From TrEMBL:
The gene is hutG. InterPro entries: HutG_amidohyd, N-FG_amidohydro. Pfam families: FGase. One of its GO terms (molecular function) is N-formylglutamate deformylase activity. It is an enzyme of class 3 (hydrolase). It comes from Jiella pacifica. Its EC number is 3.5.1.68. Gene3D superfamilies: Zn-dependent exopeptidases. Keywords: Hydrolase. This is N-formylglutamate deformylase.
Amino acid sequence: MNDWLTIRRGNAPLLVSLPHTGTEIPAELQGGLVSLWLARRDADWWIDRLYGFAEELDATIVRTAISRTVIDVNRDPSGVSLYPGQATTELCPTTSFDGEPLYEPGREPDAAEIARRKALYHEPYHAALKAELARLRALHPRIVLYDCHSIRSVIPRLFDGELPQFNIGTNSGASCDPALQAAIEAVTAASGLSSISNGRFKGGFITRFFGDPASGVHAVQMELACRGYMEEPEDVAPDAWPTAFAPDRAAPMIEILRAVIAACFAFAKPVR
């Protein structure tokens, strides 16, 4: 069993994927990095705590503790960009979201090292998703794969201006039934907070690869702007980021996310 991979098996028609909450960087990889703080800065901070209620709903939860700097399990393993022509980060990122080098010159992972990391981390994560989806699909005629993410609200290299607070990605409608997307949009619209579907973030590799509505697997990515649940300082520096998880500040967001997940349940198991 991989100690970095957590699988919480439930029987509800919902799989919650947490691919970017990890911050662990194996000791043998730390020496070539510019700094451990920079290597961990772009994690999806506190997302596992925001969705902590999923366990009580008997959802299946798959999470990696490994930092996305080691390898990004939400990227195409072939290395093909998910957003051709737009700035993004690679399968094994060599730059931060802001474009700063993550490695000292000449210490970036080569092809052999990338292949090693794929075998160690990327493949087991996806094998876990595949196995759990198959298990749940055997129990239910349709299931929802909900991929959880967050990102700083302002990153000029990646997008213009301030990101909406809710960014729903369904691969431009291909990864789930339109009714599921509409149900989630209704919740985010009622929240009074800004939202968009298939804008800058249309869903990563997990959403695009596993979403197969015709086979009963409906995949959605939710990218939250961090300001919706945590303080975002103007200067994202080592002494100011990440800010501590604040339950009182996060509580309203958690209630909205509960409603989003309730919409997923209602779609997967409609009242007859």
